[in-house]
Amino acid sequence: MTTIVGIMSKEGAVLSSDKRASKGFFIGSKITQKILKVDDTLAVAIAGQVSDAEYLVNAVRAERSLVTLQRGYPLTVKETTKLISNVAYQGMKSYQPYFAEFIVAGVDALGPHVYVTDMSGAVSAEDFVSSGSGSPIAYGVLESNYKPEMTLEQAKVLGTNAVQAAMERDPGSGNGIDVVAIPSLVIAPEVQQRRN
Amino acid sequence: MESQQAGRMPYFYGPEGALVQVDFALEAVNRGSTTLGIRTDEYAILASQLKPTRPLIDPAEKIYQIDEHLGATGAGYIGDVLKLIQELRLGAQKHRLTFDSLVDIKTASEELSSYLHQYTIYAVRPLGASVIIAGSDPLGIQMYQVDPSGTYFKGSGFAIGAGSERSLDVIQRGYSPGLSLDELVSLATKAIKTVTQDESQIEFGVVSKTNRKFEKLTAPLQTVR
User: Fold this and answer.
1) Residue B225 pLDDT more than 50?
2) Are B66 and B209 spatial neighbours (Cβ–Cβ below 8 Å)?
3) Measuring CA to CA, which residue among A100, A85, A104 is closest to residue A7?
4) With B25 labelled, which of A74, A81, A101, B71 sits at a CA distance of 20 to 30 A?
């Protein structure tokens, strides 16, 4: 169930989500927070088993602050995603997988980034991405409207529209939209550079 | 010293509160070959005297590549130095697997210091080796010295091994933050030659801010000597 969306713009990264938590055919909650703040420069949107996802994000939040204290500068978005994916991969290999998908969005010294990782531990960098039962519908909006040179404001609107479209037709998504925009601290390098 | 008094029990602190075993380990380092590191904002250079060997025996390697951006050298018992180098290399690769990024120099040094510290709190032989670690990370060119006690120092001029006091003195007098790579090599050569006096070989390793790579220097060595 769920619709979550991550979008990268030249000015920062955006996450959006619906607010419905499903228990089978029952709406378990209408005010769920699916976008979890890790710190001022990074947030994670979660889909799947809430407990699994929250556990991993909490562990990564702790690790991120420890590493920042240890080495004197914060983890990059990619490093943070790798932390999540390592645990997810180990879970899959030990037949106790974390039933969740994560869209990690944030900014670091290299600019804004959106990464996605899942229970298999696969990591990929994306310009825009969606996950959850509503994602096929959200992708329709994203594919036809995403532009690499979008401003942060335009990315917020696109994120909202994508989730809105999914909520119209996906019974697993609904009850409102959350949007988080993380503005970049540095002048964004070329979009191409982020793809290496 | 007091070893007779101590009997067969393992002891840690001497009567003055010094960690006796650790002090002995530091003495072992002082018997090693003269080894140093000099750092500017642009470069860090590691240099170590190669102990002269018999004609058919190759001298042991003294400058070690840890990862592409990171190198180290050491003085003391060569077996202990090699163990520490292995530990550093392992740490660098573990960091790559865990974070998909290059380990920063502080973390590499602190992990090694923590490893050495373990040998100071149990009845075991502390490793008789100090290492100097130099590398490049997002904070710039950085250099650390790690001692058998588990103590580490961050800085721009280190010398360990035989005659390290005199060697460090030469570095301190010749140091300026704007030294070029050639000047660093000659300062390092001078600092080691002050102690060794003979025609022993010196091995060099350099990390530069421009390419962020640690490389062993072989060619310039000939021109300097």
Assistant:
1) no
2) no
3) A104
4) B71
Contact B99 A79 (CB under 8 A): yes
Q: Please report the domains of chain B, with CATH numbers, ordered by start residue.
A: 29-51+62-224 (3.60.20.10)
- Following DSSP, what letter does each residue of A62-129 receive, concatenated? HHHHHHHHHHSSPPPHHHHHHHHHHHHHHHHHTT----EEEEEEEEETTEEEEEEE-TT--EEE-SEE
Q: What does the domain layout of chain A look like in residue ranges? A: 4-185
For the stretch B17-54, pLDDT in tens is 899 899 999 999 999 999 999 999 999 999 999 987 78
- Span B181-192, mean pLDDT? 95
Q: Which CATH homologous superfamily contains domain A4-185? A: Aminohydrolase, N-terminal nucleophile (Ntn) domain (3.60.20.10)
Active site residue A2: yes
Write the CB contacts of A157 (distance below 8 Å, at least 6 apart in sequence): none
The pLDDT score that the predictor gives to residue B221 is 46
Q: Which pLDDT belongs to residue B59? A: 83
A63 touches B at CB < 8 Å: no
Provide the shortest C-alpha distance from residue B198 to chain A (in Å): 41
A24-60 burial, b for 16+ CB within 10 Å, e for fewer? eeebeeeebebbbebeebbbbbbbbebebbeebbeeb
Tokens of A34: 């699916």
Average pLDDT of chain A is 93
pLDDT of B27: 95
Q: Do residue B107 and residue A76 have CB atoms under 8 angstroms apart?
A: no
Residue-wise pLDDT tens digits, B79-119: 999 999 999 999 999 999 999 999 999 999 999 999 999 99
SS3 for B84?
A: helix
Phi first, then psi, for residue A54 (nearest 5°) are: -65, -40
Candidates B94, B95, B100, partner chain A, best to mutate (most A CBs within 10 A):
B100
| Catalytic residue selected from A2, A3, A80, A117 | A2
How far does A33 lie from chain B, in Å, by closest CA? Answer: 27
Chain A residues whose CB is inside 8 A of the B91 CB are none
Backbone angles phi, psi at B35, to 5 degrees: -140, 135
pLDDT at B197: 73
pLDDT in tens, A136-155: 999 999 999 999 999 999 99
Q: What is the pLDDT of residue A192?
A: 46
